[in-house]
Write a structure and sequence with these properties.
Blueprint (H helix, E strand, L loop, with lengths): L8 H4 L17 H10 L2 H5 L18 H19 L3 H10 L8 H11 L8 H12 L17 H6 L23 H7 L10 H24 L10 H11 L6 H12 L13 H29 L15 H19 L2 H24 L6 H9 L3 H14 L2 H11 L10
Length: 418
Amino acid sequence: MDSTDLYDDHARERLVAEPPKRVEAPVRTAFERDRARVVHAASSRRLAAKTQVVGPASDDFVRNRLTHSLEVAQVARDLSRALGSQPDVAETAALAHDLGHPPFGHNGERLLAELSETCGGFEGNAQTLRVLTRLEAKTFTEQGRSAGLNLTRATLDACTKYPWPRGAGPDPLKFGVYADDRPVFDWLREDAPGPRRCLEAQVMDLADDVAYSVHDVEDGTVAGHLDLTRLDTPAVWDTLREWYLPDAVDDEVDAALVRLRGVGSWPTAPYDGSRRSLAALKNLTSDLIGRFCGAVQAASFAAGDGPMARYAADLVVPRETWVEVTVLKSVAAHYVMQTSDRLAIMERQRSLLSELVEALVAGGPDALDRPFADDWRAADDDASRLRVVVDQVASLTDASAVDRHARLAGGGSRWTAP
């Protein structure tokens, strides 16, 4: 059976009905159209200038949000195909998964969450839904409201990492929809069994974790921040418990590191910048991704017959695999994200965004780009206007946030791009 056959008309439905194209060569499926719309979206292009771990202006080698999204998409597509689900759906969700992230990565996300308490908070995944269904202009409803890219129900559902509103999930800081986006959220979740995520969203989420756990370690190694042959494991394990797995015990994470070091391509000598060393690091990246995805594929097939699509099955991530992924995430977090110079940069970024939000609120529509100025004028209270300002700030790249701050808040030359 073709994987597309696992998705019925309800899954392929769009919020705004679209007549078939009169002339199109080659003919594309609904899910291929979705993928093309995300690829060509302005929000996707902006990801090239948004922080992944370190700022994109700091080095021409490090990953940015766009290159990270492309890598997540490749992992998601391969895993989806191996499971027998629709790879275009999983790939599109992976390409879109960071569209809602603001300047300066998770640091910017945390700051906007604090500043937007009075208008319902901020969450990168809820903002992604807002981008896809409202802010990225392509289609309008009969009532004249933007329907964003007008993606299919199945694709939008796959993009929904946290399918619940604020305060309704296990983590109060993680949610997938703002209050004024509930109509489209309720539409895309029409056939969903409660807060359960569809399989494709689970694939996207795992691909994200796998990609950045492996690639952040690769970037940190090349940048000279860490040496995989000499890890300060007690300090890394403290970070692991503080950031990711508070219930993990030393024996468990020690065993995970032993298994990782048993991978044939794990380095036995420090990285030296040579082509041979670069090749060895790339082989390790490939081997680790294959190891993690292979374990998940085997466990998922062992858990049920499927079919592996929508709500007919769940992704199964073995505990040992998850601890291995978390070990790599913690290595990057300890050696790259918690350095003193990195923490100083993050504090500057927080000050910049805070001052920028304040300046935009004070400046009103004259300080906003035209689409957001129109939204401001249509808003009927201060909370709605603050949401518009947050939408504007979240749309900016790292560099454009610095530039906008310099123009509106008098930042001057002291705010060179972090």
